[in-house]
Design goal:
This protein is of the alpha/beta class and 387 residues long. The chain has two domains: 153 residues, VC0802-like, CATH 3.30.2130.30; 177 residues, Rossmann fold (3-Layer(aba) Sandwich). It has ten helices and 16 strands. The chain has an eight-stranded mixed β-sheet. It has an eight-stranded mixed β-sheet with strand order 11-10-9-12-13-15-14-16, covered by helices on one side. Strand 5, helix 4 and strand 6 form a beta-alpha-beta unit. The chain is elongated.
């Protein structure tokens, strides 16, 4: 099979994590960009990437690239010059998304409208029929990515973003995105060498993603549909082969390693347990109703990874809450390694502990920090490093 030019998108700060994932899967010519990774692979690898990647939001297939697009007629001719019947039929629906930046067009709506006209006119001329636009659940998603005059025309092979794994049917306020959860697990370096505790587990996302990563469970194993299944060149037998091969690589957790979640809210505990059951991981993850501030470490060496609430809208005293986090870690979790993600940067000064590492991330448009605290016994000093 001919190799395709592909792009996987992700959150800011997770580009290297995604590149590492792609290389482990067998991608060729991997190159890191801003919130994206470029790579190459055949059609089977496109299926494999969608099915397996834990830290990708979408996988895009490049159809064509144009160097000089700065007038409406140039845009129309470029889009009209692509044979769209190779990808879908006039009975299917489509949508066009415009990304990137260009100073040569009024707005993204104008670009999308001009491109839509080119596609519709082509189908009407060839079949005397036209495909309809569907902005919510289209069969085909076309992405026009501009960088000044340069235009890449891409097909979105994923459809719904890949963070929609299919297991999370119940969430709490401001749930952590599954891709970001998978990313912070990788950045923390947890590899089932210690038992993992999420002391404020909410809907259980961090624990589910951790189990899936370490057990090599494909990220999309519970997902029902991908956009590439609507393409004219979809190879269902090849996709089944890719899925079966990926499932064959699933492994057990190391003996003695426990994955545990605490939450003091009964509703959160119920949601987490349901999501864990949906992910078929109830044999590997235990959820307890408990107030972290009243707990003690159950192992002498423990790995904590959590995303505490940080929004004043949640009716908590942020300063007192984060001080309690620091006090609990210091007093009852000595010998543990703790990682904390927050989208409210001022909360970190309330913890009262010196982080040994800080990593800048973005949760959507919200600037965040992933910080590490090494809870040494005694007064051992920790040097601060930043990424």
């Amino acid at each position: 099979m001919t190799d395709l030019k592909l792009t996987a998108t992700t959150f800011y700060g997770l580009e290297q994590v995604l590149a590492d994932e792609l290389q482990q899967l067998g991608a060729k010519h991997v190159k890191i960009a801003n919130r994206a990774v470029y790579f190459e692979g055949d059609l089977g690898f496109l299926y494999k990437a969608n099915y397996n990647l834990h830290t990708a939001l979408r996988v895009l297939r490049q159809l064509k690239s144009f160097r000089q697009i700065y007038k409406a007629q140039q845009l129309y001719r470029a889009i009209a010059g692509i044979d769209w019947s190779k990808w879908f039929s006039p009975q299917q629906t489509f949508r066009i998304d415009v990304t990137g930046q260009t100073k040569y067009f009024k707005n993204t709506n104008f670009i999308a409208l001009k491109a839509k006209d080119a596609i519709v006119d082509q189908f009407r001329a060839a079949y005397n029929q036209r495909p309809d636009i569907d902005l919510k659940q289209p069969d085909i998603r076309i992405v026009l990515h501009f960088k000044d005059q340069h235009l890449d025309v891409l097909l979105d092979s994923s459809g719904e973003p890949l963070h929609k794994r299919g297991y999370r049917t119940k969430t709490n306020i401001a749930p952590l995105n599954e891709v970001l959860a998978a990313g912070i697990i990788s950045l923390s370096g947890w590899q089932a060498q210690k038992s993992l505790l999420d002391p404020m587990c909410g809907s259980g996302t961090i624990l589910i993603e951790a189990a899936m990563q370490q057990m090599q469970i494909p990220a999309a194993i519970n997902r029902q549909k991908f956009a590439f299944e609507n393409w004219s060149d979809f190879n269902s037998s090849l996709f089944e082969l890719i899925k079966n091969s990926s499932i064959d690589k699933i492994r057990e957790l190391p003996a003695g390693i426990k994955l545990t979640g605490y939450d003091k809210a009964p509703s959160a505990v119920a949601k987490a347990r349901l999501n864990i059951k949906n992910a078929h991981l109830e044999d590997f993850i235990r959820i307890e109703q408990a107030d972290f501030f009243k707990t003690k470490a159950v192992d002498s060496e423990l790995f904590l990874l959590f995303n505490p609430p940080y929004d004043e809208r949640l009716s908590i005293d942020i300063k007192a809450f984060y001080k309690n986090i620091g006090d609990t870690l210091k007093q009852t979790y000595t010998g543990s390694e703790a990682w904390l993600l927050t989208g409210n940067l001022k909360t970190l000064k309330y913890v009262g502990l010196r982080p040994s590492k800080k990593t800048k991330l973005f949760n959507g448009k919200l600037e965040s920090r992933l910080v590490q605290y090494l809870m040494y016994a005694g007064t051992k000093k920790i040097k601060t490093t930043q990424n």
